Amino acid sequence: MIEELLIKYWGFSSFRPNQREIILSVINGHDSLVQLPTGGGKSICYQLPALAKSGVCLVFSPLIALMKDQVDQLKKIGISSIAIHSGLTANELGVEMQNIVNEKYKFVYLSPERGSSQLFRSYLKQINISFFVVDEAHCVSQWGHQFRPEYLKIGELRALSPDSNLIALTATANRDVKKDIVKYLHLQSNYKSFLSSFCRPNLSYIVINDNNNFHKLLDILCKVKGSTIIYVNTRKKASEISNLLNKNKISACYYHAGLDMRQRDAIQSKWIKNEERVIVCTNAFGMGIDKPDVRLVVHFDTPSSPEAYYQEAGRAGRDGLKSHCILLANSNTKILSHQFPKIEQIKHFLNCLYNYHQIAFTAGKGISYKFDLSEFTKNFDIPIHLALNSLNIINSLGYIKNENIHHQNKIKIQINHEDLYSYQVKNEHLDSIIKILLRTYVGLFDNYIHIQIGFLSDRLNCSITELKTALNKLNADGIIDYIPKSSNNTITYLKSRPTKVNIDTKLYSQLKNQSEYRERYIEDYVKNTSICREKFLLKYFEEISKNNCGNCDICRSLNKKIKLTSHNKTLIAEIKELTLNNKINLKEIISRFDTCEGHEIIANIQWLLENSYLIKINNKYSWNEK
Asked: Are residues 230 and 329 both part of a single domain?
C-alpha cells in the first residue's frame, strides 16, 4: 500500500534509506525521533503515513515561508492542506479552524505559538488527529542552534489528544538536543529512533584561501559548470556580486529578504528553471528549496555555524551526482555574528522595539506589527549588526517572533447563494465580475481562495485597477472578504510588554557560550590543513568516521603525495611527456603503452584530471603547466 502511495503522489518507485521503516513506525502508532541529513527526504516520512491514516495531520513548523512552501507542494500533487499562522486575519482564522474540524484538509501546518493559543486548544478536542509532526525539532532545545521557547509548549498539546502519536524530525541534532526532544515533546518510553549518517559521498568540501575572492569566484565558475548558489552575509553584497558576474558574462540574479514577494518569487522561479545559472543570496534563501541539480555551492563569506554551513552546502547534489561545496576565505575572514550583544544592549534594544511600535506596558501579547529594520536602526541609532544579533537573541529568549509574512490575493464570499443573487440583480455593473469569480474558483462560499488578478482582468477585458476597484466595492458592501496581496517583515510579540525588562541570565549565558563554540568550530574548520573536511564536519554532529572522504581538498592534497611516490610515478612521467605542449586524445595515449593495460592508464589519467595535472578540452588532453 505505501509503495502505491509513493508512486501515485511522488512518482518514486522506491524509498530512500530509512524512509520505509520510519513510515511504518508512524503508521503503527509509535512516537518516532527521526534524524535525516539535509536533502534526505524528511517530508515523505510524515506526509505518506498521513495519507495512509484517517484524520488530520498537524505539522508544527518554525517558519511561515517553509509552511507555505510545503502547502504549495502538497496542493500541486492534489492533497488538501492549509497553513495557520499569525498572518491570517481573525475572519480567516475562524473559517479555517471550522474547516479543519470538518476535515476539509489532510494537513494543517501551524506555528508553535499558534498551537499554544487558547483558541486553537479550544478546537483541538474537536479535531480528528491522525498524529502530530514537529519539524525542525532541534528548536525545542536550548542546546540547538535555532532554539525557540514556544516549541516547549508543543508537548502540552499531547495531553489534549493522548491517543495521537508524534514524529519529531531534524537534520541537525547532537546528543543533548536529542535528549531535550525526548523530554519536552513527551515521547513515549518505547519511541523509535532513526538516525542516518550525515555523510554525503557525492559532495566535495573545499576551502580556498585567496586575497581576491571575486577573482577566485570567477575562476571557480569557469571550471565548475552547472547550477550554482553563492551565499553572502549582506544584502548589499548579494546585489554587487550578482552585477559583477553579469558583467563577466555569467548569468546571475540575487535574492534577499529586502525584496518584495513578487520579486523573490520571480527570481526563485527563473533560477529553478535554469534561466539563471547563479543565484547570489543571503541565508534568507534556501529553506524548502529542493532543486536536485545544484552542482556548486559557494560561501563567499564564512557562515556563522557548522549547522548553517552543513544545511546550506547540503543544497548541492541532491540528485546524488558529484557536486562541490566551496568556502572562500582570506586573512581578513570574520564571522558577522561575532560581538555577542551584552545584556544591557539587549534590554535597550527590546525597549526601543516596544517604543517603535508604541506598545504600552502590559500590552502587545499576540499582536503582529510591520517592521522596517533600516528605519528602526536609523531612528534609534543602533548599528545594523547589533540589531540583527539582538533580534536573534530576543527570538531565542521568547519575547518576539520575527518573520516575513506574504499574502497572495485572496477572497471569500461572505453571504449565501440567495443573497448573492439578489445583489447581482441590483448591481448589474458587478454581475460579470461575480460570475467570472464563481466560474473560475471552486469553494468561495466555504474557504479563502487565492485569485489571480492579472488572469481575471484579462478574462473580463478590463484593467487591473478597474478590477481592484470592483473587488474593494464588493468588500465594502460585505459581499466578499478581499485580502490584497502584500509582503511585510513583521514582529509578533509573544509576551506582554513588562514594566521592567528582565533577561534570564542563565539562558543568556548558555546562548552566548553555544554561539561562541559554533563560531570557533567553523573558524577551526576554515584553518584546518590536516584533517579530512567531511570528518571534521561529522565530528561536530557526533558522528565518528573511520575513513577519509577522498573528495575534499585535504584528502586530495594527501592523495597527491601518495600517488607521486607510488609505483605509478614512471607511468605518470610518460603521460606528462606525451601531453606536455601537446593535445592528444585518450585512444592515442593508450596506444603508446604496449605493456600496460588500458584500464590502468585510464585510472591514472582520471587521477591526473582530478588533481588538475591534466586538462581536458574537446576530448583532448594536455598537461597543465600552472
From this structure: yes
Q: Among the three residues 172, 195, 218, which one is the final residue of a domain in this structure?
A: 195
Do 253 and 352 lie in one domain? The reply is no
Sign of the Cα pseudo-torsion (511, 517, 520, 524, in order):
negative
Residues 256 and 318 in one domain: yes
Residues 6 or more apart whose Cβ sits within 8 Å of residue 392: none
Beta bridge partners of 57: 107, 131
Same-domain status, 303 and 388: no
Q: How far apart are CA 424 and CA 467, in angstroms?
A: 16
* Dihedral angle over CA of 37, 41, 43, 48, nearest 10: -140
Can you state the angle between helices 464-476 and 453-460, rounded to 10 degrees? 100
Structural domain of 172: 2-195
pTM of the entire predicted model: 0.78
Residue range 106-163, pLDDT digits in tens = 999 998 888 888 888 999 989 999 999 999 999 998 887 788 888 988 998 988 899 9
Identify the CATH number of the domain in which residue 573 sits. Answer: 1.10.10
With both helix axes pointing from N to C terminus, report the angle between 505-527 and 384-396 in degrees, rounded to the nearest 10: 120
* Burial status of residue 50 (CB atoms within 10 A of its CB: 0-12, 13-18, 19 or more): buried
Q: Is residue 138 helix, strand or coil?
A: helix
Residue at grid coordinates 568550530: 521
Q: Is residue 127 part of a domain?
A: yes
Q: What percent of the chain has pLDDT over 90?
A: 58
Give the SS3 label for residue 246.
Answer: helix
Q: 108 and 181: one domain?
A: yes
Is 544 among the domain residues? no
- Rounded to 5 degrees, φ, ψ at 146 are -135, 45
CA 626 vs CA 36, 221, 326, 468, 614: distances in Å: 42, 18, 21, 63, 10
Contact 95, 447 (CB under 8 A): yes
β-sheet bridge partners, residue 129: 56
Q: What is residue 436's DSSP assignment?
A: H
Q: Are residues 359 and 455 in the same domain?
A: no
Place of cell 499531547: 158
Distance, CA of 226 to CA of 223 (rounded, Å): 10
For residues 28 and 126, membership in a common domain is answered with yes
Residue type, 626: K
SS3 per residue for 498-515 = CCCCCCCHHHHHHHHHHH
- pLDDT tens for 408-439 read 899 999 999 999 999 999 999 999 999 999 99
Scanning the structure block, which residue is given the C-alpha cell 555577542? 340
Domain boundary residue, one of 298, 315, 336: 336
150 & 31 share domain: yes
d(CA 145, CA 213): 28
Overall domain count for the chain: 5
Q: Label the pairing between strands 107-110 and 252-255.
A: unpaired
Quote the CA–CA distance of 447 and 385 in Å, as a whole number. 42
Cα within 13 Å of Cα(266), Cβ side:
6
